[in-house]
Design goal:
alpha+beta, membrane, DUF3137, DUF3137 domain-containing protein, nine-stranded antiparallel β-sheet, 313 residues, transmembrane helix
């Protein structure tokens, strides 16, 4: 697999003419969005001044319609960016990888991972599927949400997960189900209370205590099979997950269920959307796209799924 520096070279050497064209379109689009936003805001302010008793409704309509207008304005530019920049970048990693800008990893795999509770709404985009080192892998942006209703029947939504969701084949079937989550309880409430909360988590299987203090600080493990969980999470794999967590600097959730490994990396934003208000020629912007793609693909290498990890069992 190509390194981050090789992908960055490809980004600039092969895509720079395309980026320059897109940069001109971005500047024009940014100007258009600012003008439309000013006219739209003035129009809504005039309506609000006239209909003084409907402020709440007008604010809601202003936000909702404004979001629709914004998506409409950026649609063509976003599509062109993904087809002329993100798609070639993915093929530079491996020409056999398939890319779709509009679909995502299925609801079935998201729910089967058991990393999060069942969402009421799941969306996503930028779906990639193929083989890396002979291992089937698929990933995409995912935004999973939960619906809530208050005592007055008003509906609201909360985010269960937003970020990169990865599914990779494993070379053996797991007999149990093992889930590795970020350790938020002990880091928030301390070791004593945090451990008690983790041990009494009714939504999860049995807590597995690992013998690596550094790993225990970052992660909490639940499993239906204590022996298998410790076998899967060998010292070598725990060190790799720790390094992966530190390198990504985002919360990482992992599960080992049947013959798949699931990994969810929280980003709280749509990863491959082009920035309208930042230059495409900015080095930091380019690196963000390159590093994100490299991180997703490197899961196979980091976890070394193609090795016969279970051969000594």
């Amino acid at each position: 697999m190509k390194s981050v520096s090789e992908l960055t070279d490809f980004y600039y050497k092969n895509l720079f003419p395309t980026l320059e064209q897109l940069e001109n379109k971005r500047k024009n689009l940014r100007y258009k969005i600012v003008i439309v936003a000013l006219v739209y805001t003035l129009l809504c302010a005039a309506i609000a001044y006239t209909l003084v008793n409907f402020y709440e409704f007008i604010i809601f309509a202003y936000i909702a319609i404004g979001a629709i207008i914004y998506k409409f304005l950026i649609h063509d530019y976003t599509h062109e960016f993904k087809m002329s920049v993100i798609k070639p970048l993915i093929h530079a990693i491996d020409s056999s990888l398939l890319y779709s800008s509009t679909t995502h990893v299925s609801d079935y795999y998201f729910e089967r991972s058991k990393l999060f509770e069942k969402p009421d709404k799941l969306g996503g985009n930028d779906y990639v599927k193929g083989q890396i080192d002979g291992i089937n892998i698929q990933f995409s942006d995912i935004h999973a949400q939960k619906r809530h209703k208050n005592s007055k029947g008003r509906e609201s939504w909360s985010t269960l997960f937003q970020g990169l969701f990865i599914v990779a084949d494993f070379n053996k079937n797991f007999s149990g189900e093992t889930v590795v989550l970020p350790d938020s309880a002990q880091s928030t409430f301390g070791d004593l209370i945090g451990h008690w909360l983790q041990s009494n988590n009714m939504a999860r299987d049995e807590l597995v205590k690992m013998d690596d203090p550094e790993f225990e600080k970052e992660f909490v493990v639940y499993s239906t099979d204590q022996v298998e969980a410790r076998y899967i999470l060998s010292n070598s794999l725990m060190k790799k997950l720790l390094a992966f967590q530190q390198k990504s600097s985002h919360k990482v959730h992992i599960s080992f269920i049947q013959n798949h490994i699931y990994m969810a990396i929280s980003y709280n934003k749509d990863l491959f959307e082009p920035s309208i208000f930042r230059s495409l020629l900015d080095y930091k912007v380019a690196m963000e796209y390159v590093k994100t793609l490299h991180l997703a693909i490197s899961v196979v290498e980091e976890l070394k799924l193609n090795q016969k990890l279970w051969s000594k069992r």
